[in-house]
Each structure stands twice: as structure tokens, then as C-alpha cells.
Amino acid sequence: MSTVTFDQIGKSYGPVKVINSFSLNIKDGHFVSFLGPSGCGKTTCLRMVAGLELPTSGKLLIGENLVNDPANSLLIAPEKRHVGMVFQSYAVWPHMNVFENVAYPLRVSKVTASEIKDRVQSILKVVELDGLEERMPNMLSGGQQQRVALARGLVSRPKVLLLDEPLSNLDAKLREKMRVDIRRIQQEFGITCIYVTHDQVEAFTMSDTIVVLNKGDIIQAGSPNEIRSKPLNEFVAEFIR
Q: What is the pLDDT of residue 176?
């Protein structure tokens, strides 16, 4: 597992700043939620950790490894960062069955066939999809597809798991169950998680730390209890009310 360090990270698209310069250290094994209104920059932060967006200033570290340093033209490719990512849209391959979807990152990494089989079957048990290896995505419920995406994100044993509003397409009852399941799996693996959401219930029930963002700035970072009981300013107080 690993820490994640944002060191004076900023992001601009031409003259438009979407992330103002900020610093943040995410502890090893912690579940951290980025919470804020639409357009506040939370998904951009997540995508920078994944290597899908490039910061325009500052440094980004995963553990002790520097993965982005624009000032020195340093960029570590996404596939070499040892991160897993679960997207809002699941991004499950429709032409692959459950086993092949989950096995895909291992095949890309040229893991042996016997190890692929063992690791895929093991992670499918964790997400309670064992026995469904041959099912195609169109035969799965939304919750099952999300579990496939989660298993695929975990099977390569990443240092950091990134989740971008992964429950927003599920109904209320299923969202509640998946919140519990994701938190259980995260604690079982002891993995560092960064979770993007605009849903306060998700943030306050799942997180060790909540980072409240607005207009590209970190407004407050603290435990759920600290954010709720000691909002730093009027924006935080109004937003979580």
C-alpha cells in the first residue's frame, strides 16, 4: 500500500485554472473522500493521480516515487503507477465475460495463466461474484457490474485504489449495500483509497478523512466528525447542512 502526496499541485487548461496550487498528504491505508459540488475539481485530482490528467505545476508522489514533476518534464505513465481505478460508468467490456474482464489487467502485465486463474478466482470471492465467471455483462445487474469493475481494480494489487463516483448509477438500496461492501473490502485489503463523490452520505459513512473542495481549492480536510462539528467556514457549514 502507499501514501499519496500532492505538493503544490495545480492544473490549468490554457488560461483557465481548474486546480489552484494546494498540498495534501494521504496516509497509507486511509479511505479519503473528495467531496464538493460539481465542477470543484475533485475528479481532476483523481485523474491526475491516475496519470490520465497532467498537472501544470507542483509535484505528485505515490509512496516515495515521484510520478509527476512538470518543472522537470517528469511523467510516469499510468500503467507504471500501480493504481487501480473504478469509473462511474463501470467501463466493463461488453464482449468479455466476468472472468476475462477481471483478468484483463493481468493479461496486459503478462502474468502467467495459472496465476491469472488463481488471482481472478480469489478476488471474485472477495466481491461475492464467484460462480459467475462465465456470465456476460448484459446478464448482470448494475450492482454486479460495479463489483466486476471493483474486482478488476483490485486484482493487480494496486498501491492505491481510485473510485470516481462509482455508485451514482445505482438505486438507493443498492448504493447503501455497495457502500458497506466497498468499505469492507478496503479495510480487508488495507489499501489506500481516494473516493470522489458529491454524495455526503457516502463521504460521511465511508471515510477516514474528507477533503472538501470548491472552485479548485481545498477548503477543509479532516475526519467526518471534524467536518461536521467544526466546519472551517460558511461554505463548508452550508454545504454539509
A: 87
